[in-house]
Each structure stands twice: as structure tokens, then as C-alpha cells.
Write a structure and sequence with these properties.
about 260 residues; nine-stranded mixed sheet; about 20% helix; about 30% strand
């Protein structure tokens, strides 16, 4: 490894030099931080041709050559954010030890190493899922104080009454505390089921399903159509596209973040 240099900072205000090796590997899309540590301790990571197993090791991404199983790992100079129309049957994770289908199979991780999902959708939930290589953006969109709107369309078992919809709109008590007020609209009632639109401003685990369950309705199908200012806009199920600079800046504005300089 090269001699330590004074700390340098990237466009997101995070330190680039020096950088912990496991963080570098995670940012390069090789594996999660924990997975990267496992690669190191297994002796599969080389820096400038030398095996590095010490977890506290640091590298200079502008100078050092990092390899995993002989393949060079690199960081991108600029970030990328993409939108996926997630189908049912995929875990929102980049790998699964049990070999189950993961969303990583649907996005271009070879083209954009370092992509990670921004939040998650349950395996059976479909719709808009964001991925980014920009950690600041991802953290900003998910921060509980940001209150970025997320629109879901749920089909629930049974007939949801207007009173139950009002309870959800006003905020309802869950096991991890009361929810914020939400926008809830009953769209259609047919064949013993209710189609309902729910716009929430939080991102708790399985929140929409738990909200509906709290008023006595099991969610049979769940689809996310919007995230902040973004919608799927005809993007076919299982397909993805990169976001434009204007779309990324609109996301940042929705999260109360400063626009990123060009």
C-alpha cells in the first residue's frame, strides 16, 4: 500500500484518501462491508500485488491497485442512480446465501459497480425501486426526518370502510409507535376485496402491510408506483433506466438536500 496521504474529500463530503479497504470494496460493488471483510480474512484481496487480511488496512483509491480473486476493483468518478420496476419474487438484496433470486440480477452491476438499493420492497411487492452509487443520496432519501412521499397501491382482503381509511389517514398505532398522517383513498371494491391508494412519508419495515393489518385487512397485493417526484412512467416490469441529472436533483430537493454540482 502507498504511504499515507493527508485526508482528501470527495464531492459528497466523505473522505476518499485514505479509505478503509473494506469500505473501498463495498463502494466498488464487490460485496457488502461485512462480505468485503470476509473476502479479506479469506486472503482473496490483494493490494499492489500483496495479500491484505488486516481489517484496519487503508488504501489510496487514486494510486493503489486493489484486486479480488485477480480482478481489479475500481470506484467510479461520478455517481449513478437508476430506477427499476421490480417484479414479484425477488429479494431486495444484492446477494443471498440461500441462493434465492435477488434484485441484483435485474440491474447492471457489471456496468455500474457499487450500486445498492435505496430502501427495500418485500419479495412479493412490485414497483419502483431505486438504486444508486451515491451513499449521500441514499441516506438522505431514507432518513426518517426527510419525509419523502412514497405511493403504494394495495389490494386488501375484505371491504375497507371509509372510517378505517380515515384511521389510516390520521395515523395509527403500530408496535414501533404511531405512524405519521398519510393520504389514503379507496379506489375500488369488488369481489370481497378493496383496492386502496396509500401515500406514506416514512419508510418503516413492511409499513403499509402493518398499517392495513392494524385495521383488520390483509394485503393481498402491493405495488409502489411513485417515490418522491418519480413515477414508473411506463417502465416495463423487470426493466430499469438511469435517472437524468434533473430527476436526481428533484429527488434531492424532495429530501431537503442541496442539488449536486455538475
Amino acid at each position: 500500500m502507498s504511504d499515507p496521504k493527508p485526508t482528501q474529500f470527495g464531492p459528497n463530503g466523505e473522505a476518499i484518501v485514505p479509505m478503509r479497504l473494506q469500505k473501498f470494496l463495498a463502494r466498488a460493488g464487490v460485496a457488502s462491508r461485512r462480505g468485503s471483510e470476509n473476502l479479506m480474512t479469506a486472503g482473496r484481496v490483494r493490494v499492489n500485488g500483496e495479500v491484505v487480511t488486516e481489517l484496519g488496512s487503508k488504501v489510496d483509491p487514486t494510486v493503489d491497485v486493489v484486486e479480488v480473486d485477480g480482478v481489479v476493483a475500481r470506484l467510479f468518478d461520478s455517481s449513478v442512480t437508476i430506477m427499476l420496476n421490480k417484479p414479484a419474487g425477488y429479494l431486495t438484496t444484492m446477494s443471498d446465501p440461500q441462493g434465492r433470486p435477488c434484485v441484483a440480477e435485474l440491474v447492471p452491476t457489471d456496468r455500474f459497480p457499487g450500486l445498492f438499493p435505496v430502501g427495500r420492497l418485500d419479495m412479493d411487492t412490485t414497483g419502483l425501486l431505486l438504486f444508486s452509487t451515491d451513499g449521500e443520496l441514499g441516506n438522505g432519501l431514507l432518513h426518517p426526518k426527510r419525509h419523502v412521499d412514497k405511493t403504494y397501491h394495495a389490494r386488501v382482503k375484505g371491504i375497507m370502510s371509509e372510517e378505517q381509511a380515515r384511521q389510516l389517514s390520521d395515523g395509527i398505532e403500530l408496535d414501533d409507535g404511531p405512524t405519521l398522517p398519510a393520504h389514503v383513498r379507496i379506489d375500488r371494491i369488488a369481489k370481497g376485496c378493496t383496492d386502496v391508494e396509500i401515500i406514506i412519508h416514512e419508510g418503516r419495515k413492511r409499513q403499509v402491510k402493518r398499517m392495513c393489518s392494524a385495521v383488520g385487512h390483509e394485503v393481498l397485493r402491493l405495488h409502489r408506483s411513485n417515490f418522491g417526484p418519480l413515477s414508473l412512467d411506463g417502465l416495463a416490469e423487470g426493466q430499469w433506466r438511469t435517472l437524468s441529472e434533473a430527476e436526481v436533483n428533484a429527488l434531492r430537493q424532495a429530501a431537503g438536500m442541496h442539488e449536486k454540482a455538475c
